[in-house]
Structures are given as structure tokens and as C-alpha cells.
Write a structure and sequence with these properties.
The protein has 162 residues and is an all-alpha fold. Helices cover 83% and strands 0% of the residues. It starts with a helix and ends with a helix. The mean pLDDT is 76.
Length: 162
């Protein structure tokens, strides 16, 4: 039963942390009503980022803890998970940073905020693409490890014909 709960917990934790980061920054900067309206406006970009990061976290937990297949190597999945997670956070910051500069203009982030706001949607699409890439890489690793467990069946038809 633990084998199923760990990936589920990782999925929920990854998605919840990303959603918490998104709503936390927007609520802190402008209030809950504004955060809800921004989420409603960007939901077709933001929700898939939350979900794909959660899926990636679940797959990483499967690989890391060798839950279903005894993997010999997790490859570069940890680095890929960090990269796509960092990109997802950057996309969320691109969504929110110009509101933070309204609250804290002393930080001198207005140029960065303008840049990130202008390319907000492309950042989100890149983030989503990296999350999907991370999922595909982890699925390929799981598939290859599963193939290593399969018995060699290429010789069996040869032996039956003789």
C-alpha cells in the first residue's frame, strides 16, 4: 500500500506547493480577490503547470524510491526535476512580479518586472514544455528499466520450430 501512497503524496505535495507559491505571491501583493481573478484569467496555463509538476514529482518518487521497478539508475531525473521546477517557479514569478514591484518599488525590480510581464505567456509555455519533457524522460527511464526485467523471448520461437 505504501508503494501507492508515496507517489500520490508526491503528486499532491508538488502540485500544492506550486499552487501555494502562485497564490501566495499574488495574495501577498494584491489580495485574495485579485489572486482569484488572475487565476481565472490564466487558468489554462497555470493548471497544466500545477498538474505536470505534480506528475513529475510522482514519477521522480517512483524512480528515487524504486517503488515498482528496481531501477539501476535514475539518470538525470533529479537535475531535470530541479530545472523544470525552477522554470515553473520563474513562470509563476513572471505572472506576479510586476505586482510585487507595486508593493516594494525600493527593490529596483521594475525592469525585470516589465520584461517578465511582457513574456509572461511564453514563460508559462516553456515551463509547461519542460515539465512535459521531464515526464517523458522519466517514463522512458521506467520503460527501459522494465524492459531489463523482461525475459529474452527472441530465442523462444527459434527453439519451437526445430
Amino acid at each position: 500500500m505504501k508503494r501507492y501512497l508515496i507517489p500520490l503524496a508526491a503528486f499532491l505535495l508538488g502540485s500544492t506547493l506550486m499552487a501555494g507559491f502562485y497564490f501566495g505571491i499574488l495574495t501577498w501583493a494584491q489580495g485574495w480577490d485579485y489572486a482569484a481573478s488572475q487565476f481565472s484569467f490564466n487558468r489554462w496555463y497555470v493548471l497544466p503547470i500545477f498538474v505536470t509538476l505534480g506528475i513529475q514529482a510522482a514519477l521522480y518518487s517512483i524512480l528515487r524510491f524504486r517503488l515498482f521497478i528496481p531501477t539501476t539508475s535514475t539518470g538525470h531525473t533529479g537535475a531535470l526535476m530541479g530545472t523544470s521546477g525552477g522554470t515553473s517557479v520563474t513562470a509563476m514569478v513572471a505572472c506576479c512580479l510586476h505586482h510585487v514591484t507595486d508593493v516594494l518599488p525600493i527593490l529596483g525590480l521594475s525592469a525585470a518586472a516589465t520584461y517578465l510581464t511582457r513574456y509572461q505567456r511564453p514563460f508559462m509555455l516553456v515551463s509547461l514544455g519542460l515539465n512535459i519533457l521531464g515526464i517523458v524522460v522519466m517514463l522512458i527511464i521506467l520503460y527501459r528499466e522494465r524492459q531489463k526485467l523482461q525475459p529474452v523471448q527472441k530465442l523462444q520461437p527459434i527453439l519451437e520450430t526445430e
